[in-house]
Amino acid sequence: MNAQEIDYQIFGEEMQYVEIELDPQEAVVAEAGSFMMMDSDIKMDTIFGDGSNQDTGVLGKLFSAGKRLLTGESLFMTAFLNIGHGKKQVSFASPYPGKIIPIDLSEFQGKFICQKDAFLCAAKGVSVGIEFSKRLGRGLFGGEGFIMQKLEGDGMAFVHAGGTTAKKVLAPGETLRVDTGCIIGFTQNVDYDIEFVGGIKNTIFGGEGLFYATLRGPGTVYIQSLPFSRLAGRVLASIPRGGKDKGEGSLLGGLGNILDGDNRF
């Protein structure tokens, strides 16, 4: 099934949203929870899977939905169909600070591989599946990058990245080493593996994890500066135990807690 052609515009800087313009009978599918606003005459419907194979019967629908469970996503997605007579708009918002990246699958030979939580929305007809690792190293130590999503078709898809994004075009044989969580996605020709950092000092005191991803060209790679796992870790680390932090913002800092009788670190 060919994906429908859609027009779009991205608004904002740090907390972006994408506005998609739908012609009559055009549709877009999105992850549950990403919807922001829509015009009248747009019908919202919950569907199994990604909606790319709705004509394959019950088993096809169940298989499409089942693939999403393996990536930790919901069985369902939401479809937005323009049932009116003129152009209508529907918008989807970023889940946390970062950038929305438009991916034209027709420019990437019909396939793009991305982190399992990066997908935001796509034209109806784009298939959202899973990309299994073919190497033991990725499976055992890949972390966020073990099971990835693959977007297939010839339409537009939109992925979300945290912080600032970087686009790297790798020449044949050129290698890029990246923190596994900082990968947004890459084209299908890029060879992806996990490598051990090495060195006793790096292993014990490095603080950057024991493994990193090695991406080898040719192909295009998208990198994010703030993966959600890192953002969540910093937020959790800043929450004071016991529900209070009297030394925050003071010159004494943690010493203020000790003098106050709270000697927990």
TrEMBL record:
It comes from the Bacteria. It comes from Arenibacter aquaticus. Transmembrane segments: none annotated. This is TIGR00266 family protein. It holds the Pfam family AIM24. The lineage of its organism: Bacteria, Pseudomonadati, Bacteroidota, Flavobacteriia, Flavobacteriales.
